[in-house]
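FORM 7B: Structural annotation worksheet

SECTION A. Query
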Amino acid sequence: MRTFIVLAAGLTAAAPASATGGLTCDTAGGHPLRVSVGFAHTPGAPLLKETVRLLDNGRAIPVSAPQWWLDNDELRLVLTDPHALRREAIVKARRNGRTYDGNIWRGGKRRWVRCRES
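SECTION B. Predicted structure
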């Protein structure tokens, strides 16, 4: 039994780590918009579907993220309805120190947005 426990602990320790991270983007002023996404820290990792969220003035809008780009300098994100028939929001931001600052387009209006690690 002791050998089994040692073997199981060794196999668990040898398994690859699956670290995750995320970004939360907020607008300033009245009628706030919030976008949040989560992703795995592995090359070519997709966004985690269950973490993609859009809040418009506190109201949850069902979305998916069929297109996105994140690197050390830039964030680009397209949010659509769950069936990808209608664009709900577009985020484009550039790194500014520890944050990404840029714009979000929703409902034909452009607003300033700041994205932080979450």
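SECTION C. Observations
Residues 3-17 have pLDDT under 50 and may be disordered. The domain at 19-117 is CATH 2.40.128 (Lipocalin).

SECTION D. Sign-off
Analyst initials: ____
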